[in-house]
Design brief:
By secondary structure, this protein is α/β, with parallel strands linked by helices. The protein has helices at 14-17, 40-43, 53-65, 80-92, 109-115, 131-138, 143-158, 185-197, 218-221, 231-243, and strands spanning 2-9, 22-27, 49-50, 71-74, 99-103, 121-125, 162-163, 170-179, 205-209, 249-251. β5, α5 (109-115) and β6 (121-125) form a beta-alpha-beta unit. α8 packs parallel to α10.
C-alpha cells in the first residue's frame, strides 16, 4: 500500500469531523482521473510512501490516540484486501472507532464486498448522471451505472443514516456528495432525481458541494471549467433537491470555493 498522509482532518461534513477531526488516511492512486481533481498529486500516484499491513494497523491506533472521531479511508478501494487485514489487526489491539470509506463512487462491487462488516460509514461521491460528461471529465462513460449499483451495495451494508443523539457524530450510514460543476446544473438535477428515486432516499444523507475550484492547467483542455460556479445555479440545486424530498442534506454556505480544503500531502503520520 502507498500512503500520502495520516492526520486529523476538520473539513468533512460536521457529523464526521466533529470537534476533534476525522482520522483521515490518504491512499495513493484512484480509479478515476477527473480533469478537475483537487488531489491530483496523490490520485495520479506520483506521491505515496509504501507501508506494510502492520504499519497501517499502527497508524489507525495512532489516529485513535490523537482523539479522532473515526478512521477515514480516502480513496482506499484498490487496497481493500490489505486494509481489511490491517483493520482486523488493529481491532485486536484496541481499535474501537467507526470506519469511513471516502470514495469516488466509481467502485467495483467486488471491492465493496471486501469491506462488508469493516466499514460503518460510506462517504461517497455521485458525480454524474450523464455518460457524456462522465466520459469527458473522468474517462468513465459508465460512471452513472457503476455508481448507482455501488450506492445500492453501500446502503445494503450499512443501512440507515444514524447519528449519536448525545454527540451528534455519525455512527452508521451513507453520505452522498455531489459537487456542482460550472455549466453542470442540468446534470446535477439529473443526479438529484436519480438519488430521489432510490427506495432508501429518505435514509441517506446528501451533501451538496459548492467548493469547485479551477485547477491550474485544466482550462487548456476544458475551457468551460476555467471559471467558478454560478451562485444562482447552486441555490437552484439546493432548492431542487429539497423539492424532490432530499431533506436530509448538507449545503455549503458562504465562499466555500475560496477556502482551502486540500491538505499538504507531506507524509505526515505515515
Amino acid at each position: 500500500m502507498r500512503l500520502a498522509r495520516a492526520a486529523l482532518h476538520h473539513w468533512e461534513e460536521p457529523p464526521i469531523s466533529g470537534d476533534n477531526g476525522s482520522g483521515t488516511v490518504f491512499f495513493s492512486g484512484c480509479a478515476l482521473h477527473c480533469a478537475y481533481c483537487q488531489n491530483q498529486d496523490i490520485s495520479n500516484g506520483s506521491i505515496g510512501r509504501e507501508v506494510s499491513i502492520e504499519r497501517l494497523a499502527q497508524i489507525f491506533l495512532e489516529q485513535q490516540g490523537r482523539g479522532a472521531h473515526n478512521i477515514n479511508l480516502v480513496t482506499p478501494s484498490h487496497f481493500a484486501p490489505q486494509i481489511v487485514e490491517a483493520l482486523s489487526l488493529a481491532r485486536t489491539q484496541g481499535l474501537k472507532l467507526p470506519v469511513v470509506c471516502n470514495c469516488s463512487g466509481y467502485e467495483s462491487l467486488e471491492a465493496l464486498r471486501i469491506f462488508d462488516g469493516f466499514v460503518d460509514i460510506y462517504l461517497t461521491d455521485f458525480k454524474y448522471a450523464f455518460s457524456e460528461r462522465a466520459e469527458r471529465y473522468s474517462h468513465a462513460s459508465d460512471y452513472p451505472q457503476v455508481a448507482s449499483a455501488a450506492l445500492d451495495e453501500m446502503y445494503r451494508q450499512v443501512g440507515e443514516y444514524r447519528e449519536n443523539p448525545q454527540t451528534g457524530l455519525l455512527e452508521k450510514g451513507v453520505v452522498v456528495r455531489h459537487l456542482l460543476l460550472p455549466g453542470g446544473l442540468i446534470d446535477s438535477f439529473a443526479v438529484m432525481r436519480l438519488l430521489a428515486s432510490k427506495p432508501y432516499a429518505s435514509k441517506i444523507c446528501v451533501s451538496l458541494m459548492s467548493q469547485y475550484t479551477p485547477m491550474p492547467g485544466c482550462e487548456r483542455a476544458f475551457p468551460e471549467l476555467a471559471g467558478d460556479i454560478d451562485p444562482q445555479d447552486y441555490d437552484a440545486l439546493v432548492d431542487y433537491a429539497l423539492d424532490l424530498g432530499l431533506e436530509n442534506s448538507f449545503c455549503q454556505e458562504g465562499e466555500a470555493a475560496s477556502e482551502s480544503f486540500i491538505p499538504a500531502f507531506d507524509y505526515e503520520g505515515v
